[in-house]
Amino acid sequence: MRLLKLIPENTNIHFLKWRVPFYIMSIILIAASWGLVMTRGLNYGVDFAGGLEVRATFTKEAEAPVAEVRQQISALGFEDPIIQRFGDPNSVSIRVRLPDEAEGNPGAAEAISNRIVGALQTNHPDVRIDGNDTVSGKVSGEFRQMAFYALLAAMLAISIYIWVRFEWQFGVGALFALFHDVSLTLGMFALFQLEFSLQIIAAILAIIGYSLNDTIVVYDRIREDLKKYRKMPLPELLDMSVNETLARTVMTSATLLVALIPLLLFGPESLFGLTAAIVLGIFVGTYSSIYMAAPILIWLGVSGDSFVPTESAIERQERKAREGVGRP
C-alpha cells in the first residue's frame, strides 16, 4: 500500500524569488487590518463589552426558534441582540448590551432580565430559564485588558525562547510572523464584525501555538542546513530548507482543515467565530512560516558562521592527546 503524498519528493519551488512582493503585500494587509480595528472597531461580546446573558431551553421543541426569539427581544427595544444555540439544539443563549443607566445598578439589570424572561415565557409557555449572568462594563474592560496582555506576553515569551534556542535574528523573525498572523485575524473580525469574545482569545492563542510550531520546524531545518552548507548563498539555502519541510507543513495543515472545515460549515453558530479564526490562522500561519519568518533572515544578516560548532573541553583534550601522540 503506497502512502499518500500531497507534495512530491525533491520539490524545488523558488519561494524566496517572490519574497519582496509578498512582504509588501503582507505589510499592506497588516496596515489595513489595524486600520479596520482602529476605525470600525471590534464587535466585543458580553465578556468584553458588558451586558446581560439569559440562557433558556425550549422543552417541547426539537430546535430553538432563534429567528423568532431575536424578533421578540428586538421588540423590547434592545438593538442587535445576540441569539445563539447553546449546547442542545433547543437551547439558546440570549445576550444584550446593558444601557448606560443600568451599569453598576443591580436593580436595573435585574429588571431588564425580568423583561426578557417575561417575553420568553409569554410567547413560549414551554420555555425553561436555565440561568442569567450580568457583566459590568468595568469588569469587561478588565477582561479585555488582561486578554490582550496575555496575547502580548505569549508572543514575547515565544520570541525569547526562539532567540535562546537559535539566534536573535530568528527571534525577531518569529515575532514578526506572529504579529502578522494575529493582525490579520483581528482584521478579519473587524471587517466582518464577528463577535469578539474570550473564545476568540483562545483561538488566537491556538493560532500563535500553531504558527510557532510551523516556524520552529522551518527554522530548525534552516539551522541544520546552515551548519552543513555554510558557503551556499542564503536565498538558495532558505529555499532548500523550506522545500525540505514543505511536505510536513502541507500535511499538518491539511489534516487540521479536514476536521475544521465541516465544523465551520455545519457546526453550531456559537462556534463559528472560534472555528473561522483557527481556519484563517492555519492559512496565514503556514504562509508566514514561508514568506515572513524565512526571508527576514536575509535582511537581518544570518550566515552559516553563526552556527560553527564550538570545540568542547573533552574534544579539546582528545585533540591535544592526539597531537601529543604524533610528536617525536
Order of helical and strand elements: HEHEHEEHEHHEHHHHH
- Largest sheet features: 4 strands, antiparallel
- On the 0 to 100 scale, the average pLDDT is 82
Q: Indicate the CATH architecture of the largest domain.
A: Up-down Bundle
Tally of separate domains: 2
Order of strands across the biggest sheet? 3-4-2-5
Total number of helical segments?
11
Helix content: 55-70%
Low-pLDDT ranges: none
Task: Describe, in plain words, how this protein is organized in 3D.
Residues 121-301 form the Protein export membrane protein SecD/SecF C-terminal domain. It is found in: Cell membrane. It is a multi-pass membrane protein. Keywords: Cell membrane, Membrane, Protein transport, Translocation, Transmembrane, Transmembrane helix, Transport. With 328 residues, the protein is of the alpha+beta class. The chain has helices at residues 19-39, 46-49, 66-74, 106-123, 137-165, 168-192, 198-228, 234-266, 272-291, 296-299, 313-326; strands spanning 43-44, 51-58, 82-85, 91-96, 127-135, 195-196. The strands form 2 sheets. Strands 3-4-2-5 form a 4-stranded antiparallel sheet.
Quick description:
This protein is α+β, with helices and mostly antiparallel strands. 63% of the residues lie in helices and 9% in strands. The chain is built from 11 helices and 6 strands.
List the helices and strands and how they pair.
Elements: H1 19-39, E1 43-44, H2 46-49, E2 51-58, H3 66-74, E3 82-85, E4 91-96, H4 106-123, E5 127-135, H5 137-165, H6 168-192, E6 195-196, H7 198-228, H8 234-266, H9 272-291, H10 296-299, H11 313-326
Parallel strand pairs: 1-6
Antiparallel strand pairs: 2-4, 2-5, 3-4
Transmembrane segments: 20-37, 146-164, 170-191, 198-219, 246-266, 278-302
Organism: Novosphingobium mathurense
Protein name: Protein-export membrane protein SecF
